[in-house]
Specification:
The protein is mainly alpha-helical. The chain contains 10 helices and 7 strands. The chain is globular and about 50 Å long. The protein binds heme C (2 copies).
Length: about 240
């Protein structure tokens, strides 16, 4: 009896209009999913190794202040977050602050190899842990901005994010299976890019896909959107560094 009822739950959620948000790994092909779990078949591990090496460099080094990188477990799961000065920071933005404010160096730059490498190595420490971003307090206003972006129809195709990532999740589009559009696998190695890339780079691709304005990497638009995506993923596992077609 109970099992039968449980089968009806997804249908019930659909009727009530509640989004059924599933981990991104559930949408990957079996081959990509297996390779994502296997360091010997995941090119992104080159960035992880570089990031671990960078962790010990600089004056003072990241390690000098933070200790072993394993101590970063759980950190990526809490980003983006609002810093004490009120700025909304993603993990890359947080690393850049340490680079400029605590090491006195110039910023690595968005999408640069060392920044992606450090982000991948730090995110890996949270792999499998549940996303746990704060959505209340100072984050609430940013979250609403991100939600608005997500729900607004955009571009020449006049589509909102949710029209693909909620209404059509599981369907195929140009060889991809549409996921729920979470950021849990980023930074990710994308075979089409032939390199590691950030979530904001992937968001630019989706903006272009609907012929809408592409915002700069690290822009307020994509930071607030990232926060909203993370709130949808709260409780689901961190999968970074991801592997994508
Ligand atoms: C001189 C000490 C110092 C150095 C060097 C340093 N950090 Fe930090 N880091 C901090 C402090 C202090 C914080 C807490 C936030 C703040 O007050 O800036 C922090 C916060 C962080 C956080 C967020 C932690 C959290 O729980 O939210 C990350 C990630 C991080 N640092 C990464 C790095 C990386 C990567 C490097 C090397 C490129 C580095 N840090 C170098 C002092 C340092
Ligand atoms: C026309 C349909 C469509 C629209 C509209 C769209 N996307 Fe996507 N998106 C895709 C496809 C296809 C992919 C690649 C397959 C996948 O991972 O879902 C993708 C991938 C993504 C990913 C990467 C998921 C991963 O783990 O690799 C994110 C995040 C994302 N989209 C967010 C968004 C956001 C936010 C918007 C609105 C600004 C948006 N998308 C609009 C089709 C769309």
């Amino acid at each position: 009896m109970t099992r039968g009822w449980r089968k009806l739950l997804p249908l019930l959620a659909l009727l009530l209009g509640a989004a059924d948000v599933r981990p991104t790994q559930d949408y990957l092909s079996p081959e990509i999913r297996a390779a994502q779990e296997d360091p010997s078949r995941h090119p992104g591990w080159l960035w992880v190794e570089e990031g671990e090496a960078l962790w010990g460099r600089g004056e003072p080094s990241c390690a000098a202040c933070h200790g072993n990188i394993a101590g970063m477990a759980g950190v990526a799961a809490r980003y983006p977050l609002v810093a004490t000065d009120g700025a909304l920071l993603d993990l890359e933005g947080r690393i850049e602050r340490c680079r400029t404010q605590h090491q006195g160096e110039s910023a690595f730059g968005r999408e640069s190899e060392p920044l992606l490498a450090l982000a991948a190595a730090i995110a890996l420490q949270s792999r499998g842990m549940p996303v746990a971003v704060a959505t209340d307090g100072p984050a609430a206003a940013f979250l609403e901005e991100g939600r608005h972006f997500y729900e607004t129809r955009q571009g020449q195709l006049n589509l909102s994010c949710g029209q693909c990532h909620d209404n059509n999740a599981g369907r195929r589009l140009r060889g991809d299976v549409i996921s729920n559009g979470l950021g849990t696998g980023y930074p990710a190695y994308r075979l089409e890019w032939n390199t590691m890339g950030s979530l904001h780079r992937r968001l630019r691709a989706c903006s272009l896909g609907v012929r809408a304005e592409q915002f700069p990497l690290g822009s307020r638009e994509y930071l607030t959107l990232e926060l909203f995506l993370a709130s949808r993923a709260n409780g689901l596992p961190v999968e970074a560094p991801g592997l994508r077609r």
